[in-house]
Amino acid sequence: MFGNSKSSRDGQLVVDALIGNQVVIRGDVEFSGGLYVEGRIHGKVIAQEGASGATLTVAEHGVIEGEIRAQVVVISGRMDGDVHATEKVELTPSARVNGNVHYQVVEMNAGAQLNGRLIHASGPVAALPAPEGEGEAAAGKGGTAARRKLAEAMA
Fold it and tell me: Among 45, 2, 47, which residue's Cα sits nearest to residue 25?
């Protein structure tokens, strides 16, 4: 369990640190690797900058009251605050989240409760090239040509 070299992407849960169910932490927590929370944290839980594979798992009876920032976040317990995941957020059926979830990829199972917004954190989007004839259509010319192309496409 501890020191396992398998990553969570291989289907294995990696746990480098465990916060047991009898533990209450008041203050911010900074981590790298895998952090498994069965207890309570009153404060921010933030992965160290540059920490690859930072995975936070909140167990079914775990509670976090504060902000979360990590690459991968799996929530089975209660979360009061915003979640920021640079890779993936998973909400299991027992998850209870009060706050916004910022994600790249989200997996939300039936039964999970979210009181907040799902916000897709997209990277910079490359500009698409202008369609052919856009200059004419913008000037009010060639509108019939655009309609003709649309009619041909629909036929």
Answer: 45
